[in-house]
Design goal:
By secondary structure, this protein is α/β, with parallel strands linked by helices. The chain has a single domain, classed as Alpha-Beta Barrel (TIM Barrel), CATH 3.20.20.70. Helices cover 34% and strands 19% of the residues. The chain is built from 10 helices and 14 strands. The strands form 3 sheets. An 8-stranded parallel sheet has the order 3-14-13-10-9-8-7-4. It has a 4-stranded antiparallel sheet with strand order 5-6-12-11, with no helix packed on it. It has a two-stranded antiparallel sheet with strand order 1-2. The two termini are 14 Å apart. Bound molecules: flavin mononucleotide. The site of flavin mononucleotide has 25 residues, from strand 6.
Length: 288
């Protein structure tokens, strides 16, 4: 079931969604098998920023009947320590790496893309433009012009495929995708989480330390599918569809509306091997 994504041959269509599968933590818990039987056809890293971040104060997760609301806040060790400690280990994975980065301003993004582009085994860079841009106060991924300016700023720095990860919290994600594509993006990934609020049942105050959070899981799938279908119809670059994929059948829906790859996020929290299971179920559907 191999698939060509931006010139890279992948064993199947299922990759992990950024921030939802940590191969190093999986190896600590399950042993070497977490690497040798890696469940995805490529590994997408959690978002890396220039400086280390603690993330938001707890609590950071709220489980709802069909979804998860997180307020993680991009905790990560920062690019320098990632390069020193994580990258040498992640290179040992049997699959290629896609590195997800976010800059709080253009200079940060230039630094991140400049560093990542020189790394062996990295086959693409995913730009997380679904977070606040402190320069203009807007979410880059919700504003077509801002998104185009961001892609344009880094396009010349790398020959690696640039994947732009869109937010669903936008009036017209297809307009943002068109702007990203025209500015030189090679692919779009979508959706990031939907803004949501969970209240503590006892106090009716926000439960999450960060106030609001991002909703993911099967409960967002219909929204993700509609947005993915509209973006697939609007641009000719490949799309990585995600949002609530938890089975071969639901992955197949994203492929049916035009996605080239499918990413699995929240499903990996209840089943660390969800990626392989879903890839197997997809292959089974093809044989029917
Ligand atoms: C706990 C958690 C952490 C996440 N961290 C990131 C992140 O670091 N960078 C990013 O681009 N998306 C992040 N996401 C969003 C996912 O990559 C994905 O876009 C979203 O969860 C929808 O897919 P799903 O419904 O399969 O989880 C995170 C999602 C969750 C639930």
């Amino acid at each position: 079931m191999s698939v060509n994504f931006c010139g890279v041959e992948l064993a199947h269509e299922v990759v992990n969604a950024s921030g939802t599968f940590d191969p190093l933590a999986a190896r600590r818990t399950f042993g070497e098998v977490a690497f040798t039987d890696f469940p995805f056809s490529a590994h997408v890293t959690k978002t890396i920023t220039v400086a280390a971040r603690q993330g938001n104060r707890p609590p950071r997760l709220w489980e709802a009947p069909t979804s998860l609301i997180n307020s993680i806040g991009l905790p990560n060790k920062g690019i320098d320590r990632w390069l020193e400690e994580d990258y040498p280990e992640l290179r040992k994975l049997p699959v290629p790496l896609i590195v997800n980065v976010m800059g709080f301003d253009t200079d940060e993004l230039l630094k991140l893309v400049g560093v990542v582009t020189g790394l062996e085994d990295v086959v693409a860079i995913e730009l997380n433009v679904s977070c606040p841009n402190v320069e203009t106060g807007t979410i880059i991924g919700s504003d077509p012009d801002e998104c185009a300016r961001t892609v344009d700023a880094v396009r010349g720095l790398t020959t690696l495929p640039l994947i732009v990860k869109l937010t669903p919290n936008a009036t017209d994600p297809a307009a943002v995708a068109i702007a990203a594509s025209e500015a030189g993006a090679d692919a779009i990934s979508m959706i990031n989480t939907l803004r949501g609020l969970a209240l503590d049942p006892a106090t009716l105050e926000p439960w999450l330390g960060g106030g609001t959070g991002g909703v993911s899981g099967p409960g967002v799938r219909a929204v993700a599918l509609a947005q993915t279908a509209s973006v697939c119809a609007a641009v000719s670059i490949p799309i990585i569809g995600m949002g609530g994929v938890d089975s071969g059948a639901s992955a197949n829906e994203f492929l049916a509306v035009g996605a080239t790859l499918v990413a699995v996020g929240t499903a990996s929290f209840t089943d660390p091997m969800a990626g392989s299971r879903i890839a197997g179920e997809l292959a089974g559907l093809r044989q029917l």
